[in-house]
Design goal:
28% of the residues lie in helices and 17% in strands. By secondary structure, the chain is α/β, with parallel strands linked by helices. The strands form 6 sheets. Strands 11-10-9-5-2-1-15-14 form an 8-stranded parallel β-sheet. Strands 16-17-18-22-20 form a 5-stranded antiparallel β-sheet. The chain has a 3-stranded antiparallel β-sheet with strand order 6-8-7, with no helix packed on it. The longest helix has 16 residues. It is globular, with a radius of gyration of 24 Å. Bound molecules: 1-O-alpha-D-glucopyranosyl-D-fructose and calcium ion. Calcium ion binds next to loops.
Length: 545
């Protein structure tokens, strides 16, 4: 590890959603001991670090993203002793561990908020944002991410408090120096405990515009990377640098250009997740990712951060549907094609639990099967508008976050081997077909493909440091690009459609000598009119020396 080549540039991350990973005690909820038991599995994949979604004490309105004690472990997940054990065992296996850092807001049950709410002159009042209001008139018209106003009225004080997510998630007032100091101390406490870094939740929202800011086209503009945020980021950066911790920010609203500031060597964070590549097409209830949009967004981020800054690469997380359902056609072939397509881009790849098995969306048949709060809100809003229940269900569940949150599918026994009890969220009925035990045995499985792909990626520094250039830029279905350094060039070509496609190659590729090195189907050669089968993916290599 050197200043220019820190360990995380050549590392793959694995995201664990603790609630749905593995339940060790039969209460239907995944837990820390469950994660400990599955560490050998994670290690065998070939990844280098784990990101755990929130494991802190929480009333669980937003599955742990509403924290009531930053230094406590959610009882359902275990104890601080369990966490220490998890950290030690992961480290022993060469796996680093990063935690979710949720500091845009707390739970409304956090002692700070309970104090703040208790009276207008409580010393904690200004830990949050309060404005004069009435039952019928909010301080302004701003809308929250989860639907409805960003303001919730408090009758006792005749003021409203501000929240960009649910009312149970009041936003912290970062302008207040005391708030920042408390947060910084908490961060140091975790870093001193030995964790390796953080994924910073919703970090681009910590600064808000003036309350009289007038909304135009983007309803979220007043809290997306607003001027003034940099001062806070610089303070955070100093702490992370002091501890040499790895950081990845969820920074929606930070453009690919601005991301350079955020992630260059002297930047606030090591890397950020962009939130733009899910370019949707189709009617609500039947949307898919538009391939050309997907590839143009990713290519722009690749180019803008090519030589300064760093990308965090992902196609799934706990907030989105399963990629093999919305971009792929739910086959083994398409899962592999998507894997190859994003993992060889420039940046640090993240794999979300179950993605490596090709887990797919859940067939929701009732709103009672849904847990996600934002989906319930959307469903109610649609019913209020007079949309028929069946249609409202379809629109709501098609892109719900719960597709990603169904329990991990370990084997073909009841509940996919996730729990001996009743799972907190229903298991996908396809678990007999798609599960980890089965895929380990099958040399041609998606799981084995991921292992081979990670090993292939690790064997070539070109994938870490090399350039990125799109090939066949405007092809609506083929995502092709080169990764090159002074020693070699890789040409990556992926047909992201379920149709046979022909790509006419530029002369230069025919004149140079390329060799097939990796793919999800059979060997092939570069020809003038190359035929790609449905979701076929190939990598060619050209040696310079
Ligand atoms: O998600 C936040 C999130 O998605 C927004 O920051 C995003 O900017 C917005 O939707 C615009 O597209 C994170 C977590 O990943 C999510 O699970 C939590 O519910 C949320 O924060 C609140 O903590
Ligand atoms: Ca449990």
């Amino acid at each position: 590890m050197t200043a220019n080549n820190p360990w995380w540039k050549k590392a793959v991350g694995y995201q664990v959603y603790p609630r749905s990973f593995y339940d060790s005690n039969g209460d239907g909820i995944g837990d820390l001991q469950g994660i400990i038991q599955k560490l050998p599995y994670i290690q065998a994949l070939g990844v280098d670090f784990i990101w755990l979604n929130p494991i802190y004490t929480s009333p669980n309105v937003d599955n742990g993203y509403d924290i009531s004690d930053y230094q406590g472990i959610q009882a359902e997940y275990g104890t601080m002793a369990d966490f220490h054990e998890l950290l030690a065992q992961a480290h022993q296996r060469g796996l680093k561990v990063i935690l979710d850092l949720v500091v845009n807001h707390t739970s409304d049950q956090h002692p700070w908020f309970l104090e703040a709410k208790s009276s207008k002159d409580n010393p904690y009042r200004h830990y949050y944002h309060w404005q004069k209001a009435s039952e019928t008139k909010a301080p302004n018209q701003w809308q929250s991410f989860f639907g409805g106003s960003t303001w919730t009225y408090d009758k006792a004080s005749q003021e409203s408090y501000f929240h960009v997510f649910a009312p149970e998630q009041p936003d912290l007032n970062w302008v207040n120096e005391k708030v920042r100091q408390e947060i910084y101390q908490m961060i140091e406490w975790w870093l001193e405990l030995g964790i390796d870094g953080f994924r910073l939740d919703a970090i681009s929202h910590i600064q808000k515009a003036e309350w009289n800011f007038q909304l135009t086209d983007n309803p979220w503009a007043p809290f997306m990377n607003v001027a003034g945020i940099d001062a806070y980021m610089v303070e955070l950066q100093a702490i992370f640098e002091k501890h040499q911790s790895m950081t990845v920010g969820e920074a929606s609203g930070v453009s690919s250009r601005k991301a350079v500031n955020w992630t260059q060597d002297s930047g606030y964070l090591d890397m950020i997740f962009e939130l733009e590549h899910n370019v949707r097409e189709g009617l609500p209830g039947a949307e898919r990712i538009n391939v050309l949009g997907f590839k143009k967004v990713l290519a722009r981020w690749q180019k803008d951060l090519e030589w300064s800054g760093w990308n965090a690469l992902y196609v799934e997380n706990h907030d989105n549907p399963r990629i093999n359902s919305i971009l792929g056609n739910e086959t083994v072939q398409s899962a592999k094609a998507i894997a190859l397509c994003y993992l060889l881009l420039k940046g640090t790849p993240f794999i979300y639990q179950g993605q490596e098995l090709g887990m797919i969306n859940f067939p929701f048949a009732s709103i009672d099967q849904v847990d996600a709060k934002d989906s319930h809100n959307q469903y109610c809003l649609l019913l209020d508008k007079g949309v028929a229940p069946e249609k409202a269900l379809k629109i709501t569940t098609h892109w719900t976050r719960d597709h990603a949150r169904t329990p991990m599918q370990w084997n073909a026994t009841e509940n996919a081997g996730f729990t001996k009890g009743r799972p907190w969220l229903e298991v996908n009925p396809n678990y007999q077909r798609i599960n980890q035990e089965k895929e380990v045995e099958d040399g041609r499985s998606i799981l084995n493909f991921y292992q081979e792909l990670i090993a292939f990626w690790k064997a070539h520094d070109t994938f870490v440091t090399g350039s990125f250039d799109l090939v066949a830029k405007n092809d609506p279905e083929i995502f092709a690009y080169t990764r090159a350094d002074e020693k070699q060039t890789f040409l990556i070509m992926v047909n992201l459609s379920d149709k046979r496609r022909v790509l006419t190659m530029k002369k230069i590729f025919l004149q140079q000598k390329y060799q097939y090195v990796f793919g999800n189907r059979t060997e092939k050669e570069i020809t003038q009119n190359m035929v790609f089968e449905s979701f076929e993916a190939v990598v060619f290599r050209r040696m310079m020396k």
